[in-house]
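Q: Hi! First time asking for a complex rather than a single chain. Here are the components, and I think there are two in total. Is that enough to go on?
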Amino acid sequence: MTRDLLVMDRVIKRFGGLKAVGGDAGLSFAVPEGTFLGLIGPNGAGKSTTFNLISGVLKPDSGAVVLDGVDLSRARAPQIAALGLGRTFQTPRAFSSLSVLDNVIVGADNSGETIGSAVFGRWRADERALRDKAAAVLARVGLADRVADCVGNLSGGELRMLEVARQLVRDPKILLLDEPTAGVDPSLQAKLSRILVDLHAEGRTLIVVEHNLHFLLQIADSVVVLQNGQLLSKGTPSEIKADEKVITAYLGTEHAA
Amino acid sequence: MQIFLTIVMFGSLFSVLTLSLNLQYARGGMINFGVVAYFAAGAYAYAIVTQQPPKGLDQYLFGLGAPWWAGFIAAGLAAMAFAFLTGRPTLRLRGEYLALTTFAFAEMLHSLLVNERRIGNGTVGLANVERPDPAGIGLSEGYAYAGAAFLLMLVTALAFRRLLASPYGRAIDAIRDDETAAEAIGKDIPRLRFQVFVISAIPIGFAGALYAMITTLVSPDLFTAEVTFFVWIALVLGGERTLHGAVAGTMALVGFQELIRAIPFESIRAAEIAAAAEDVLTGLLFILILRWQPFEVLAKRKQTA
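A: Yes, that's all I need. Here is the structure of the assembled complex.
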């Protein structure tokens, strides 16, 4: 049995008295290292809130989020990112004044990002390698010919891939993707699917929120189903597809195996 | 010729302020409506460090009698210290909230200078500020101070360009564009914003010292919110995207005002009319430039060439 990379321990988050995540007992689940976890549930189930709780955008009201043995309850989002957590957002976010390539390079941990390095020009030594690495990642997500473009020219789907690239360049231990296929055309979806399968094969831990179950259940190796902020079910994709509770709450009868 | 020198002198001097504001606002995304406070901090620090100890009717406490270069360095440090003091509690604020607090801090410094006479004689100010005599290097005063202002502007612009063209500048841009996304890639936003805020105050302090040398007077009336808005107008005129835009906007604004003031008047009545006309024409020029944005067009042409 591999160790748990991420543990959600009785996490509760309220928005103005309303329990957004956790119900009374709190939301608990563990993600062993190397897992490709699919996080699904109806709209408003608390999937994005869960992501925000893990990545430090939100703080839990009670309970703990533990990443690689480190309790994240006091850590801010940049510190959590530095611990090796990468995430994308439900609506893609790009740095609009930077080129496509710079949007990716800026994601890398860069010791050249200091005033001293800027003044003495020391950053130039590493810049070459960073550019090559960023260009390679962009080629991997299918944006090789958009490297010099400005982000305003990218389509919605391409922006999603750009966000994935910006996280990949950081070599995260665990990568959280929020609805990566929304607004992405079928051919790019197929490419994304291959990238995720490759990342999983490389031993990386992935958590993917997705409404496109056809896409997700083919490639994930375990699934957590949320409803009203609480754990409805968890298991392998085939177990989830056969789960009565999940079928009535979310999947609909046509998904019944 | 004299007027040309004046335009270069004050144009360059205020360009330093516009360049710093450009770094804070256009790149750092911080609205500072208290620019004048850092300028005043520099000017007062220079005057206090270089002046002789108080005697006679002087109400100020400190006069260190140090050489001009010590005063110049002290001016940069004073502006930096004031930025440190004001940036710590305020930089968590965004947009108009930051604008209001920086404005309030500048007003506080202004009232302190007016009411606490032990700093700089209150409203009277410090007259006969010491300054180096450029005759030593064989230059007339006009040329020497215009040259010094131009040099300070050049050094500021080059330093900022070097900073912004680096990965540091890229991180700053990323933070301004999208803070949430920048946090998700591990950027320490409070630290970077604070650094930019403090760094950009240093040249403003140096400009304050030079201003004190040129006018040989520091007094609270010289450092009102008018200076802040003058610099903001210059930044908007020149276009915020480029460093040379900031300089062009300031030069145009200073040049325009100096040209109007240079018109010789026969009577007091004519001078009054001219003063009113200056405001009207400044407004008109402002509208025309915003409509056609000539400096932005120039900057773009330069980039594509």
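A: Chain A touches chain B at residues 55-57, 76-79, 81-82, 86-87, 89, 93-98, 102, 105-107, 109-110, 112-115, 117-119, 121, 123, 127, 163, 166-167, 170 (CB under 8 Å). Let me know if you'd like any chain examined more closely.
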